[in-house]
UniProtKB/TrEMBL annotation, chains A, B:
Protein species of origin: Domibacillus iocasae
GO aspect biological process, one term: tRNA pseudouridine synthesis
InterPro entries: PsdUridine_synth_cat_dom_sf, PsdUridine_synth_TruA, PsdUridine_synth_TruA_a/b_dom, PsdUridine_synth_TruA_C, TruA/RsuA/RluB/E/F_N
Enzyme active site: D53 (nucleophile)
Enzymatic class: isomerase
Catalytic activity, EC: 5.4.99.12
One Pfam family, short name: PseudoU_synth_1
TM spans (from-to): none
Official protein name in the record: tRNA pseudouridine synthase A
């Protein structure tokens, strides 16, 4: 058996998320359907770096699978792209040792969140960024973001649906990129809890629009209570940008 | 009655084209449904600068309608955007004289056609540009484009489904913009026949990939026969960019 690591991208707008669920169209189901065809109707299990929710996009999701097929590792990208629907694409494939695991070997991740601020909704961005046509003070958002960086217990920034015991994570960087109407917030960290990026974005936006003070973020973190943090920002602005391995 | 001119944009990927047809989801139907709601269930007829096919996008389609409602003309954009689905947006509205007609007053149009040349299909561009992963010699395409500029009988570049008698049109400019993997071809002219831009693009691409010579374009034009010109390029790359009025 050979272990193949795949770097994939997908437009999340027509998927019910990454992970397979009965009946729903998911990224995992489409990937495993493509592998099933290539393996002459033998099921092949895939493992991803983590799930993404319905509507969330990926530029660099990482998945691995084991195969008995002998094929140059880089050929797998072409073989899979030949079977996949047009909203998923395999960017790169490579052979890895059996010690590599797409989920357990992760050392860090980068997520990006896109907001656009035109007066009216843009049909070409509607499922690719969050439309927010109100003023945002980005310098206040940067001040607030400083409180989120470093190692913290992120219970206040984690969906109550999470089953993770340990909610301590390290956010290594939060940076802001503005270009015209677009605002992109980039988050790097050793790991992220369920909905953590979207709750951080919802909180930063409340600081940006003046309904919270930057210092309130420290208080919300310290309270370790999801009910203290503002609403989760919508899925359409979120991109799993890159997964890092040692 | 007041005549309102609207500049609209739409993502054509989920529409069966601009013009209303029984049962299909079209841009015109969605616009007239929004107007019907605003006019308390009285039907309002819209007139566009021209149709666009299924899958074709618009950044600056122009539409007019007549209304008995008294409202500041620029307010119409907000009222309509409140009722329209997320893949259509009204950019601007203004009151015009009854001599203005979105179709008959047109003095020119600009269309843009987008091609991208990555090795594998990009899920985020799949319905917004034409994926062409083969070499294209853009300098040859520019040479060929020179033969299309000016006043010509464009019978060879018009769908046989067209019911227009007079096939003489003037193309005032064709220009090429390359950035990374992207190639955009911009066409300006006094008017365009049915499928004309997409047949011109199909022809320019055959020159670009070496299967036609630039001079062949002059021959194809002179033959005035649709069967002489190459295939129509796919809808997803085409944008009605701007409509000009005197």
């Amino acid at each position: 058996m050979k272990r193949i690591k795949c770097e994939i991208m997908y437009d999340g707008s027509r998927f019910s998320g990454y992970q397979s669920q009965p009946k729903d169209r998911t990224v995992q189901r489409e990937l495993e359907k493509a592998l099933w065809k290539i393996h002459k109707k033998v099921p092949v299990k895939t493992h991803a770096s983590g799930r993404t929710d319905a509507g969330v996009h990926a530029m660099g999701q990482v998945v691995h699978f084991d195969t008995p097929i002998t094929m140059l590792a880089e050929r797998w990208a072409r073989a899979l792209n030949g079977e996949l629907p047009s909203d998923i694409s395999v960017k790169r494939t490579e052979e890895v040792s059996e010690k590599f695991h797409a989920r357990y070997s992760v050392s860090g991740k980068e997520y990006r969140y896109r907001i656009y601020r035109t007066r009216y909704r843009d049909p070409f961005r509607t499922v690719y960024a969050y439309h927010y046509p109100y003023p945002l003070d980005v310098s206040r958002m940067k001040e607030a973001a400083a409180y989120l960086m470093g190692e913290h217990d992120f219970t206040s920034f984690c969906s109550t649906k999470s089953d993770k015991e340990n909610k301590v994570r390290t956010v290594t960087d939060i940076s802001f990129f503005e270009q015209g109407d677009d605002l992109e917030i980039r988050f790097k960290g050793t790991g992220f809890l369920y909905n953590m990026v979207r709750i951080m974005v919802g909180t930063l936006m409340k600081v940006g629009n003046g309904r919270l003070e930057p210092e309130d973020v420290a208080r919300i973190l310290a309270q370790r209570d999801r009910n203290r943090a503002p609403q989760t920002a919508p899925a359409e602005g979120l991109y799993l940008w890159e997964v890092f391995y040692e």
